[in-house]
From TrEMBL:
<feature type="binding site">
    <location>
        <position position="354"/>
    </location>
    <ligand>
        <name>(6S)-NADPHX</name>
    </ligand>
</feature>
<feature type="binding site">
    <location>
        <position position="252"/>
    </location>
    <ligand>
        <name>(6S)-NADPHX</name>
    </ligand>
</feature>
<feature type="binding site">
    <location>
        <position position="156"/>
    </location>
    <ligand>
        <name>K(+)</name>
    </ligand>
</feature>
<comment type="subunit">
    <text>Homotetramer.</text>
</comment>
<keyword id="KW-0067">ATP-binding</keyword>
<dbReference type="InterPro" id="IPR036652">
    <property type="entry name" value="YjeF_N_dom_sf"/>
</dbReference>
<feature type="binding site">
    <location>
        <position position="59"/>
    </location>
    <ligand>
        <name>K(+)</name>
    </ligand>
</feature>
<keyword id="KW-0511">Multifunctional enzyme</keyword>
<keyword id="KW-0630">Potassium</keyword>
<feature type="domain" description="YjeF N-terminal">
    <location>
        <begin position="10"/>
        <end position="210"/>
    </location>
</feature>
<dbReference type="InterPro" id="IPR000631">
    <property type="entry name" value="CARKD"/>
</dbReference>
<dbReference type="Pfam" id="PF01256">
    <property type="entry name" value="Carb_kinase"/>
</dbReference>
<feature type="binding site">
    <location>
        <position position="120"/>
    </location>
    <ligand>
        <name>K(+)</name>
    </ligand>
</feature>
<dbReference type="InterPro" id="IPR004443">
    <property type="entry name" value="YjeF_N_dom"/>
</dbReference>
<feature type="binding site">
    <location>
        <position position="306"/>
    </location>
    <ligand>
        <name>(6S)-NADPHX</name>
    </ligand>
</feature>
<comment type="similarity">
    <text>Belongs to the NnrD/CARKD family.</text>
</comment>
<feature type="binding site">
    <location>
        <begin position="124"/>
        <end position="130"/>
    </location>
    <ligand>
        <name>(6S)-NADPHX</name>
    </ligand>
</feature>
Amino acid sequence: MRLGHSVEVVRAAEGALMARLPEGTLMQRAVAGLAAVCTQVLDGVYGARVVVLAGSGDNGGDALFAGARLARRGAGVTAVLLTPDRAHAGGLAALRAAGGRVVGVEDGPAVIARAALVLDGITGIGGKGGLRARAVPLAEAAHRSRAAVVAVDLPSGVDADTGEVHGAAVRADVTVTFGTHKPAHLIDPAAEFAGVTHFVDIGLGPELAGPVLEALQHADVAALLPRPAGESDKYRRGVIGVVAGSRRYPGAAVLAVSGALRGAAGGVRYVGPVGDAVLARHPETMVSSGSPHQAGRVQAWAVGPGLGDGADARAAVAEVLASDVPVLVDADGLRLMDPETVRGRTAPTLLTPHAGEAAALLGWAREDVEARRLTAVRTLAERLRVTVLLKGSTTLIADPDPDVPVRANPTGVSWLATAGSGDVLSGITGSLLAGSLPTRDAASCGAYLHGLAARVARGPLSALDVADAVPEAWRSVYV
Ligand SMILES: NC(=O)C1=CN([C@@H]2O[C@H](COP(=O)(O)OP(=O)(O)OC[C@H]3O[C@@H](n4cnc5c(N)ncnc54)[C@H](OP(=O)(O)O)[C@@H]3O)[C@@H](O)[C@H]2O)[C@@H](O)CC1
Ligand SMILES: Nc1ncnc2c1ncn2[C@@H]1O[C@H](COP(=O)(O)OP(=O)(O)O)[C@@H](O)[C@H]1O
Ligand SMILES: [K+]
């Protein structure tokens, strides 16, 4: 499991550890890891042009010390000091002693244009707001140049705790972070500014209090996914009921069922007006056209994709929400549901909105949801007292209990932004709910497998390609 900790927790852990270690130890551990990554990034250190952008804090100190190490190995290192009178004294002395030179901010863009590597040490976890005006031309020059941009701890300008970006920020190719990940490394838009993240262990682990964020890895998902045992039968594995599709949107029913068949459930019941289309593609489905309660017993419902907004659809959503089994609500179901009913349910409820649907439920603008994903998903989960999976470039899953860490899905790829892929996700995730996974785990494993399936299928995909690739994704997490 990859964990994300808040700045407050990182500072407390750092304080506790530093109290037991000689001064400067943690910084030198961080610097050793940082310099090693710079060496990997550079195509030969000797003679390479390196520019260090150094702010006034310890983040600048890390960058200056790493620059000194590279200078000692023959790199031509130039430091651009944002605040020359307040630069990190030890780091600056080390850089000068190693033969590095120092220029002012005005000369920054010109030296950056000729660099092979730019080390961004403007701000780390101490940064507030976007980049200040003096630093903006340096970030722009780094972005324009052909240099590899390596951010120290965080790309300067992003908000460590939320992954939000207010104003300008450095766009890094690589970010080297210390001690633990911060939410900004795992949540867009900041995660996109961070590029590829390298983690350097500086011994903080045992001192860290609880994380705010978790990102599952293969081993975590393999441990959570159910495996049919010798005595399993289709009913013991769980049956998922899918309420989706309409005469206008029959494809949504087919797609949701195709996902549901690849989840954990032993059987899929489809309830709705387009059973023929579902059977034509998936003969293993049990279809019925009446109302959900006439369909037979299920262990979970997935309701919403392609329902349209007719009276029957509204009634079906209300009926499913009145049941005592877990319910996943997606797409049109999110518009048709009564939020008070949702809030009052005692069985688990999982909502799976994209940014536009979340915006409608929150009364926010869509862009605000995309810019403030963590706050948006938490607010919605807390308001409606349900689990929420917010889809998009970073899919996030929040529990109604605000003390439970939010999960960030690490497998998503932008090829998933294809019509109907959300319907497939509803099916997979609903099927995991029917297979008795706890709601947050079903949501995070569903998103994980869905993203992995898109990676397995590679390149331009249709939603059915994603569904078809789920079994291979499922197999790959076990190895
Ligand atoms: N934690 C750990 O375990 C370890 C931490 N380590 C390292 O320490 C880093 C944290 O260092 P830190 O606390 O000194 O803060 P830091 O990020 O350098 O920035 C603060 C300075 O920036 C300024 N400033 C603020 N906002 C700004 C803006 N928008 N735009 C421009 N400038 C802005 C602000 O200046 P002021 O407001 O005073 O003008 C302030 O002086 C951490 O990220 C990691 O790299 C490792 O060495 C070892 C282990
Ligand atoms: N830029 C992106 N990167 C990764 N995944 C994305 C991106 N954009 C969309 N997705 C994923 O694609 C799926 C789209 O679902 P949704 O918005 O419901 O579309 P539809 O209604 O067409 O099925 C979601 O799983 C979402 O997380
Ligand atoms: K930085």
